TrEMBL record:
The lineage of its organism: Bacteria, Pseudomonadati, Campylobacterota, Epsilonproteobacteria, Campylobacterales. This is Peptidase M16. One of its GO terms (molecular function) is metal ion binding. It comes from Helicobacter enhydrae. InterPro entries: Metalloenz_LuxS/M16, MPP/UQCRC_Complex, Pept_M16_N, Peptidase_M16_C. It comes from the Bacteria. Residues 12-139 form the Peptidase M16 N-terminal domain. Residues 145-320 form the Peptidase M16 C-terminal domain.
Amino acid sequence: MPTGNIELLFSRSGSAYTGEKQGLASLSSALLNEGTKELGATKFADLLEQDAITLHAYSTKEFLEISLSFLKEKQAQSLKLLGDLLKSPNLTKNTLEKLQKQTISSILANESNFDYLANLGLSQILFANTPLQYPAIGTIPSVKSITLDQIKEHLSSSLSLKRLSIIIGGDMDIDSTLQELSNILSTLPIGNKPALTAYQANSTTQTKTQYKPTEQAYIYFGTPFHLKNYKEEAHKAKVMSFILGASGFGSRMMETIRVKHGLAYSAYMRINLSPLANYATGYMQTKISNQTQSIQLVREIIEEFVKNGATQEELDGAKNFLLGSEPLRNETLSQRLDSAFANYNRGLELDYNKIELQKIQDLTLKELNDYIKSHKEILELSFSIITE
């Protein structure tokens, strides 16, 4: 069935760019899902539903994003509704109060989500005194304190042309669609685009323990990861991450902690690469009686990995999976568009994934192990633990 997909991405507009006003980006994007001031949430949603149009706004750490998908025959109506939303979002006191109540309910629910609490504790260690230490959803006091004027100000600066990137794909005429979008977006201010802020994970090892009524220990851990040149190093970092803990079964973490020692149902560790921050994180859940042994085992696994590197068998397995699963990572239009934009956002060729796959194919064991052994910073482990 012929469909179209349009994404408007406003950079430097996510939770990492709202200072200490926790939850502002999240609440602002939520308000964009409440229809227009003239129609309200319900009537606007009815118009979308009757024509099978999906229009949704959300925020990440870096972006405020608006996603629009539609059947080809409904393109004109879809673009009209997008224009109506941008021109007159439902920025009213009643809508804000409703969303504040919903957000506070979610925050309260998170208080019994031990995975969430352990992960948040890890962020507070790795990125202390930066915007990345805060929960994107905010806290109860911060959400209560957000005013309609603050949201208007945030949306006014975020929804601006200098911050905008447009992703278009599907069965449509690109040139005429861009012309239609140009007419719609001409109402937005030119604005300004703040400089990209990048953060370094804390190298001072720390352990934060929270005591809760739980029968399991939730153990989250993380380290800095130093990446000098994404284009030259990312393929090595991805293979390194896959072998150490990102691949699940077969990885060092899973094979040692679950298969050999039976200490946890699952254990993962992955290297996270983004323009905002590069770092490694991992987690596992185990019996409280196994907590100390499990933490020590994590340290030993990483120490041995940095000291001796990977085996040829592990490298071959990583290559087979990463090369073989690439079609699945680009199966849908949305996946292909997101992949192309991620490359564009890093200043790479849009089809850089193909180049990277060839680099993975050509990677030798010596090159990989030299790379692994050069990253001694992953020994600087910090832990966030929820236990009884």
